Amino acid sequence: MDLNTSIQYLKGVGPKRAHILEKLGIKTLEELLYYFPRAYEDRSRFSPLGDLQDGMLATIRVQVIKNHVRRTYKGMSMLDVLVTDHKKLFNVTYFRQDYLAKTLGPGVDVIFSGRVERYKRLQMTNPAYEILTGDEEDLLHTGRIVPIYSLTEQMNQRRLRLMIKTVLDLCADKIEENIPRGLLDKYGLMDKISAMRTIHFPEKESAIDSARKRLVFEEFLLLQIGIVSARKNQKKVEKGIVHKTEQLFKGFQKSLPFALTSAQKRVIKEIETDMKSAKPMNRLLQGDVGSGKTIVAVAACLISVDGAYQTALMVPSEILAEQHYVNLQDLLVPMGLRVGLLVGSMRKKDRDEECERIRSQEVDIVIGTHALLQEDVVFKKLGLIIIDEQHKFGVSQRMVFRQKGAMVPDTLVMTATPIPRTLALTVYGDLDISVIDELPPGRKQILTYWVGEKKREAMYGFIKKNITQGRQVYIIYPLVEESEKIDLKAVTQVFNRMQGEVFREFRLGLIHGRLSREEKENVMRSFKKHEYDVLLSTTIIEVGIDIPNATVMVIEHADRFGLAQLHQLRGRVGRGVDQSYCILVSDARSEGAKERLEAMAKTSDGFQLAEKDLVIRGPGEFFGTRQHGMPDLRIGDIVEDIRVLEQARQEAVCILKHDPDLNHQEHQGLKREMEMKFKTRLELFKS
What's phi and psi for 416, nearest 5 deg? Predict the structure, then answer.
């Protein structure tokens, strides 16, 4: 047997259990070894029943005396199990698990792990359990620090532990050391075989961290070698468009009624240098809400158009596409540029006409949603791709887009969801990174308040005061259902009540997802012209909307939004010279919701909030790892293990600098491991 052997050929597995293990992502012996514990229980020290106290977490080794199934007054089944450690009696209770009566029968030796609680008497409720059989195999499951794994139906801890122990014994000599000796010594890392044995069956608790650090370092090193290598290959192979002039932008800059910030100038210079190079630009532009990314994007558009090339700007929602379309028309049509729009809700006739304009280069800049990715959208001379809100698109979508040009077009991806630089290098490893790290002068900090229902009347008074001073207000309602049918009815009722009772002396507008494109445009245009004082919205207008006179953002049921969304919504105000406010309305009780709302009230710094969001939500959800093509991490955590990640990236760069193809003898293990584990998915980084 070797590590690539199918799991079904392991003794005691077979096709049926192999199918069960496949649900856990385990198909081979190696994948079984890399299925790491989610927790550990110290069963080297069992708590005597006489020492148990209310509230303590405990592991007890006992024998069942008897059990009894009964019904509660509400009809729920309850299994009472009376156990003893031969000195004292104790009660264990299971709700809705009366089938355990056969398993936990009289005379059975068992280990229970759980929290001790007092309900008239001390007991454990629904604890984890493990039956002891009295044979030598029990030494894996008791009397030591025991690994606890995530399970699926028809698989138990004992069976999984035994399988892993069997593979470790059978294949220890097949586990290849792939980290060079010099790096093991430099960082004080365990050898791989010891790390594998320790992570699954630690002899002492202190060794677990050492084993984990070794395996995390290996995982990050392989990932970073893959990313850095793909990036170097990309720059080496691809030939891009050489843009030679930027006269249009220089003229545009002189016409602006405001001065660019030094950060905007620096980033535009980086983009200009990229676009004049023969290598395709692949740049990520990070900038907090209101930092002026749009003007930077316009600069890139004008450099492309100046060389007689087309630009495609892709955004995640139709309302944002429409907003960009209106804004860019106002800015660029007076300069003689032709701006187009392509979104999914267009009538077929209009869409066909727009596609023909793109094909014949009768449009210089086209703004659109995913509709731009469809096969029949063909550009005559595509020179630049701009993707706004990159975290809502995947690497594979970027790849489709880039194949639409005869030559490899330049690519600029933008995000107002800031992430720490090292993490950006991991997630967007194929991109150069630019950061706009200052706001335009004169911008005031948006004052943010979290209020409960008791403060609603006071909040309405505050809103009215702002409106009478000539300001405008957003009131945002979250979507509750997948379909807007229920929400639409509810928000229409709210709108009627607001118009008829709360704000009857003011002008109210309503926007929601079931309006047509033209209707949405009309509402936003009217709000921008100050034909409405208050705009109620169920549509997430979180990015791109720029109305300087709007100074109050009210977010109803704010606990239903994530931190990134809340920060983006807040960024729709504070775009003028007047003091702006964000009011979060919620009676949230859950700890996660309270944490988000408190963070919003304390800081307006997008980078700080992004780091907080990473901690609260975890990296998988924050980055959408399934979308962007980053290989799944089996043990590393790019937030918790940030220091190890930095070390691994540093070493990956160093290794590839001296041995780009990993041909040195000491790097052969790394090369084989990287190709085997990451090759397919890292191909995405080359796009």
Answer: -100, 15
Tell whether domain 447-603 is in CATH 3.40.850.10: no
Exposed/middle/buried for residue 493 (C-beta within 10 Å: 0-12, 13-18, 19+) = exposed
- The answer to whether 550 touches 472, Cβ cutoff 8 Å, is yes
For 65-118, the pLDDT digits (tens) are: 999 999 887 788 999 999 999 999 999 999 988 889 999 999 999 989 889 999
Secondary structure string (H, E, C) spanning 232-255 = HHHHHHCCECCCCCCHHHHHHHHH
Q: Which amino acid is at 274?
A: D
Task: Confirm whether 45-143 and 247-276+292-415 share one CATH topology.
Answer: no
CA 452 – CA 586 distance, rounded (Å): 5
Of 255, 322, 336, 239, nearest to 295 (Cα)?
255
Sign of CA dihedral 639, 643, 644, 650: positive
Burial (CB < 10 A; 0-12, 13-18, 19+), residue 392, is middle
CATH class of 1-41+160-175: mainly alpha
Distance CA 685, CA 586 (A): 41
Q: Name the residue type at position 19.
A: H
Backbone φ, ψ for residue 78 (5° rounding): -140, 130
- Look up the pTM and report it: 0.62
Tokens of 167: 């593979």
Distances (CA, A) of 627 to 35, 425, 620: 23, 16, 10
- Domain locations in the chain? 1-41+160-175, 45-143, 247-276+292-415, 447-603
What's the per-residue H, E or C state across 79-94? EEEEEECCCCEEEEEE
Is there a contact between 258 and 440 (Cβ–Cβ < 8 Å)?
Answer: yes
User: What is the distance, to the nearest Å, from the Cα of residue 182 to the centroid of all Cα atoms in its chain?
Assistant: 35
Q: Rounded to 5 degrees, what are φ and ψ at 10? A: -75, 140
Pick the CATH number of 247-276+292-415 from 3.30.930.10, 3.30.950.10, 3.40.50.300, 3.40.50.720: 3.40.50.300
User: Which element (helix H / strand E) includes 146?
Assistant: strand 145-148
Q: How many CB atoms lie within 10 A of CB 185?
A: 9
Tokens linked to 12: 């005691």
Structure tokens at 659: 């041995």
State the Cα–Cα distance between residues 386 and 314, nearest whole angstrom: 6
**Residue 121 forms beta bridges with which residues?**
119
Q: Dig out the tokens for 385 from the structure.
A: 């791709």
The CATH number of 45-143 is: 2.40.50.140
How far is residue 392's CA from residue 440's CA, in Å, rounded to a whole number?
26
128: Cα separation from own chain's centroid: 32
Q: What is the pLDDT of residues 394-447, one digit of tens each?
A: 555 666 666 666 678 898 988 876 666 656 666 666 678 888 888 777 678 899
